[in-house]
Specification:
Blueprint (H helix, E strand, L loop, with lengths): L1 E7 L3 H14 L4 E7 L5 H8 L4 E5 L5 H11 L4 E5 L3 E3 L4 H10 L3 E9 L9 E2 L4 H9 L7 H8 L10 E3 L1 E2 L3 E5 H7 L11 H11 L3 E12 L9 H20 L1 H23 L8 H8 L1 H7 L4
Parallel strand pairs: 1-2, 1-4, 2-3, 6-11
Antiparallel strand pairs: 4-10, 5-11, 6-10, 7-9, 8-11
Helix pairs in contact: 1-2, 5-10, 9-10, 9-12
């Protein structure tokens, strides 16, 4: 048996699509939905349309990490699949990731291939922060590296999403891990209300001696920027606050400050290049960032 763990906040229609897809491809699985005090009728929909789903109805929104931990605490299977409410299964390929995590005890957590709504590949693999990475990625010098080395050092959009590989961290939209890893490492860090909790969790899992693995064998659609929707200013404030919390905690304040300065320089360089017509993209992540540059820039100075 597999335990699907879903945190929902006001995404009733998307949640219904996800639950329908799970029922279609993994009908014998345990499904746990933690609802973070939605006001859009999500809880009634789950109760009426999916009576076999275990619903945890929170009376307040305590964040993504807290809610996932609630569900993992009661999940009964040996493998957990943490999946966003704005994701959707298109086949049963997640079984491949489940087999990998069960068959390789040194694998601590697996991320699958995420697809945008149009089925193009979504950026879902990242590097842990450090000064070398911040320098190469923010000055543009990393683009001068050979393609294979560029993908390894910069990850992100330069990662080779066609190959299975060991990586630093994977996006939390869909994460697969064994219960024994959760029992040993603990859950997501509840100090991170939303954003970077996936990176921090992968870091602790890796520090415990496990591998973080990306596999293209399993595919899931992730409708970008639909769950946990909030204003751009709030999103970027949380995103960078948690990113620098990670840096302060694991790298120290001096290196964190250097990384912040390099990130500010990189933001300005990329946006200048975009306005000059040197950068063109239809990637939803970059498009969202470019359209909300002011909010992203201001968030760099929040403490």
């Amino acid at each position: 048996m597999i335990s699907f763990i879903i945190v929902n906040y006001n995404t009733k229609d998307l949640l219904k699509r996800l639950l329908t897809s799970i029922k279609k491809f993994f009908s014998d699985s345990e499904v746990i939905v933690v609802d973070n005090a939605s006001i859009d009728g999500s809880q009634d929909m789950v109760t009426m349309d999916f009576p076999s789903v275990k619903l945890i109805p929170n009376t307040e929104n305590k964040g993504f990490a807290y809610a996932n931990n609630q569900a993992m605490g009661i999940a009964g299977s040996d493998v957990f699949i943490l999946i966003n409410s704005d994701a959707e299964l298109i086949d049963d390929s997640l079984q491949q990731a489940v087999s990998l995590i069960r068959g390789n005890k040194d694998y601590g957590l697996i991320g699958c291939k995420l697809l945008n709504s149009d089925t193009s590949t979504q950026v879902s693999v990242g590097r842990f922060p450090d000064i070398f990475y911040a320098f190469l990625s923010n000055t543009g010098l990393g683009l001068l590296l050979p393609s294979g080395l560029r993908g390894k050092i910069l990850a992100g959009r330069y990662h080779d999403y066609l190959k299975q590989s060991e990586v630093d961290w994977v996006m939390g939209a869909c994460m697969i891990l064994r219960k024994d890893v959760y029992s040993k490492i603990g859950g997501l860090n509840t100090d991170y209300f939303m954003f970077s909790e996936d990176m921090e969790w992968c870091y602790r899992i890796q520090q415990a001696g496990y591998k973080i693995v990306y596999t293209p064998l399993s595919r899931v659609i992730h409708h970008f920027n639909k769950s946990g929707a909030s204003g751009a200013a709030r999103r970027y404030e949380l995103m960078y606050k948690n990113y620098y919390t990670f840096c302060n905690t694991y790298l120290g304040k001096t290196r964190s400050t250097v990384i912040r300065i390099l990130n500010i320089i990189g933001l300005l360089l990329r946006y200048t290049a975009y306005k000059a017509g040197l950068i063109k993209t239809d990637d939803p992540f970059l498009s969202y960032w470019f359209s909300n540059f002011r909010q992203a820039f201001k968030a760099q100075f929040k403490r």
